[in-house]
């Protein structure tokens, strides 16, 4: 892998398309260009658990944000790169739909609450709307 290459990067529970800006032995620095998978909500140390000291609202990395990713979590990406806003909208919608399909699940319910806090921030930052997601 080399600087300038377009890659798929997996960071914590999210996945992104980005441009390599620095390649080191164990770590790559990736400039985010699109979101493939929105990060899961909650505590990374206690995945899918609700009874934790702090249940995090996890945002997707911002457009052109540079993130540090372990080299083994970076793969070449060959397809078209979607517009950041479109990719974020799709990723949030997919996460919402997955969580909403299990309304009785405590983790899904709590994650939906966290996601509904993030959505207005994304709307403000990127001018995105989610017509299929209730605002309240």
UniProtKB/TrEMBL annotation:
InterPro entries assigned to the protein according to its UniProt record, in alphabetical order: KapB (IPR014916), KapB_sf (IPR038080)
Any matching Pfam family: KapB
Assigned keywords, A-Z: Kinase, Lipoprotein, Transferase
Gene Ontology MF terms: kinase activity
SMART domains the record matches: KapB
Protein name (database record): Kinase-associated lipoprotein B
């Amino acid at each position: 892998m080399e600087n300038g290459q377009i890659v798929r990067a997996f960071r914590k529970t999210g996945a992104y398309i980005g441009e390599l800006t620095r390649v080191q032995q164990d770590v790559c620095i990736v400039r985010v260009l699109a979101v493939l998978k929105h990060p899961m909500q909650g505590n990374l140390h206690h995945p899918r658990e609700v009874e934790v000291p702090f249940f995090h609202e996890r945002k997707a990395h911002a457009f052109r944000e540079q993130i540090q990713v372990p080299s083994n979590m970076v793969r070449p990406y060959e397809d078209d790169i979607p517009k950041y806003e479109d990719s974020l909208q799709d990723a949030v919608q997919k996460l919402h739909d997955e969580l909403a399909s299990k309304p009785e699940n405590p983790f899904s319910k709590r994650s939906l609450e966290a996601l509904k806090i993030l959505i207005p921030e994304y709307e403000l930052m990127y001018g995105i709307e989610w017509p299929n997601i209730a605002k309240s």
